[in-house]
Write a structure and sequence with these properties.
The chain is mostly helical. It is about 70% helix and about 0% strand. Part of the ABC transporter complex UgpBAEC involved in sn-glycerol-3-phosphate (G3P) import. Probably responsible for the translocation of the substrate across the membrane.
Length: about 290
């Protein structure tokens, strides 16, 4: 089928239309990325008076630093937990919204609200609820005999940031899953029911393959979100503690660069983080996308 091609009478107009987006990309992505790449080969004193070109010395020191290797492990646990929980819960809620037809609009609106909350606000909200002194969730856990103190317990702290980051991302995933489920032809499910397939079997054999492109897209987006966009949550809840137990890679970039004033190491970490996310996305498109049915 041929698509209608838009022809602009003025040849300059298309370039003017995309110029704002190109300007934003250059100013807020390409220029900072190029500066971080160049800075990763430099070593600067804390006052910025002297700068030396040290080649790959910043990178070699990073991979010899046990704290950086620990941050890798924390990031892996955090990203996998957030991605699995946020996509699974969002799919469950979207499926439930499809079944509750009369109240689905109110139900959907209530679930979308968390997406409008800033990450730092979400982190403070959950920090108050899980605060061992005044938090209502911590009080309920103590009533059940469960000891909770994310200020001194590393496992509790990791659970707290995973819950906060998952809650923040569920609404985004929910929107996409709800739209995908609404696009599944009802006749296919009815045909499956006539053939004797139960609700669970119909979902996994008919519905889930049809929404697999959306699921694949959300997995990629959620991994990127967990690795890049959760700084505000970690900073507002645990600040990487206790004893750096929740210091993920993006927070270590901030800590070493702005607190430790080690700009070369911080820039090298930024470059490595960017390479990791690009490599993960490429691997997912290369191997996981084969199982997706468009």
């Amino acid at each position: 089928m041929q698509t209608k091609r838009t022809v602009f009478p003025n040849k300059v107009l298309p370039y003017l239309l995309i110029a704002p987006q190109l300007l934003i990309t250059v100013v807020f992505f390409l220029w900072p990325a190029a500066t971080a790449f160049w800075q990763s080969f430099l070593r600067q004193d804390a006052f910025g008076f002297k700068t030396n070109f040290v080649w790959f010395q910043n990178y070699r020191r990073l991979f010899a630093d046990p704290l950086y290797m620990d941050a890798f492990g924390h990031t892996l646990v955090f990203a996998v937990s957030v991605t699995v929980l946020s996509t699974t819960l969002a799919l469950t809620l979207a499926a439930a919204a499809m079944r509750v037809l009369r109240t689905s609009r109110i139900y959907s609106t209530l679930l979308i609200w968390p997406y409008a909350v800033a990450p730092a606000i979400a982190g403070i909200l959950w920090w108050f609820m899980f605060n061992p002194s005044i938090g209502i969730v911590a009080y309920m856990l103590r009533s059940l005999g469960i000891s909770w103190n994310h200020l001194i317990n590393p496992d509790n702290a990791m659970v707290l940031i995973v819950i906060a980051a998952t809650w923040k991302q569920i609404s985004y995933n929910f929107l996409f899953f709800l739209a995908a489920l609404q696009s599944v032809p009802r006749s296919l499910q009815e045909a499956g029911a006539i053939d004797g397939a139960g609700p669970v079997k119909r979902f996994w054999t008919i519905v889930f393959p049809l929404i697999s492109p959306t699921t694949f897209y959300l997995v990629v987006i959620n991994i990127v979100y967990a690795m890049f966009d959760t700084f505000g949550i970690v900073h507002a809840t645990t600040q990487g503690g206790p004893a750096r137990a929740t210091e993920i890679l993006v927070y270590k970039v901030y800590f070493d660069g702005f607190i430790g004033l080690n700009l070369g190491s911080s820039a090298a970490q930024s470059v490595i983080l960017m390479i990791i996310v690009v490599a993960l996305t490429a691997v997912q498109f290369r191997f996981v996308e084969r199982r997706v049915q468009y």
